[in-house]
């Protein structure tokens, strides 16, 4: 942990091969960028507690989902917040790659997306799960988890996008738009994205909990480190299982109502 005076200066843990991400690393489409984030780290320094002491938390990224912006590729992504164009809510997605789109899910959970692709495209990668490798006590305090941590509790600290956002301390709306490339301060928080070498143990499949056809193998844009225990379990979104059955059978028909980014 740090007192905040040397915020995120990058003293590596055992991950010597990690390096600071630059915008060029994130300039491709979301589906290309997403698997490259696996094994990298999101490092945050956010004040915690009534004394507002800045605390560093490091998250090793183990599961992500790609969401294409409006007009990305030949097939629109019906699961993306950007599918209908730029709005006040999703405006961060249309900015420079490397900013974090921190949005509210189900009116409760602050979820973290890495903006990618060319500026103005609206691509994003949702950080679905990770392993807390430093700052475990701070992450547990934010999650309301009692110490000492059991093995399963430690595994679950950032297992799922809502838990992840809470563990690293990034909150909607105050931290929406924070720049994870420069590490600049935003409302008492700093964030940095670090990348490792390309992995050969990446699995892929349908996105979790996304409704309709956007949650089927037609959009196999969820990527995870194979066999990593912190990866969240798969579940169908509303109407997605039915849409998958229709796709498998080749039968025409509705593929469900318009889905949303989970």
TrEMBL record:
Family per record: Belongs to the DNA glycosylase MPG family.
Keyword annotations from UniProtKB, A to Z: DNA damage, DNA repair, Hydrolase
Species: Microbacterium maritypicum MF109
The protein's name in its UniProt record: Putative 3-methyladenine DNA glycosylase
A Gene Ontology molecular function term of the record: DNA binding
InterPro entries given in the database record: Formyl_transferase-like_C_sf, MPG, MPG_sf
EC number(s) given by UniProt: 3.2.2.-
GO terms under biological process: base-excision repair
Residues of the signal peptide: none
Cross-referenced NCBIfam families: 3mg, PRK00802.1-3
Membrane spanning residue stretches: none
């Amino acid at each position: 942990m740090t007192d905040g005076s040397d915020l995120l200066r990058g003293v590596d843990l055992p991950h010597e091969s990690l390096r600071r991400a630059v915008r060029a690393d994130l300039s491709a489409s979301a589906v290309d960028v997403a698997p490259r984030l696996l094994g990298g780290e999101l490092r945050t320094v956010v004040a915690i507690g009534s004394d507002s002491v800045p605390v560093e938390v490091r998250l090793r990224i183990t599961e992500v989902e790609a969401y294409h912006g409006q007009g990305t590729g030949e097939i629109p992504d019906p699961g993306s917040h950007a599918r209908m164009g730029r709005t006040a809510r999703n405006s961060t997605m249309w900015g420079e790659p490397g900013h974090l789109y921190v949005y509210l899910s189900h009116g409760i959970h602050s979820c973290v997306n890495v903006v990618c692709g060319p500026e103005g495209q609206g691509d994003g990668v949702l950080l679905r799960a990770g392993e807390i490798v430093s700052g475990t006590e701070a992450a547990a305090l934010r999650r309301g988890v009692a110490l000492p941590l059991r093995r399963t509790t430690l595994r679950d600290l950032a297992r799922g996008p809502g838990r992840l956002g809470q563990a690293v301390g990034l909150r909607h709306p105050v931290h929406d738009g924070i720049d994870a490339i420069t590490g600049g301060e935003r409302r008492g928080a700093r964030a940095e994205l670090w990348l490792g070498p390309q992995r050969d143990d990446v699995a892929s499949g349908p996105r979790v909990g996304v409704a309709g056809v956007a949650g089927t193998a037609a959009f196999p844009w969820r990527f995870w480190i194979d066999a990593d225990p912190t990866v969240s379990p798969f579940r169908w979104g509303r109407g997605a299982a039915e849409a998958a059955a229709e796709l498998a059978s080749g039968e025409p028909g509705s593929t469900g109502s318009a889905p949303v980014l989970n």
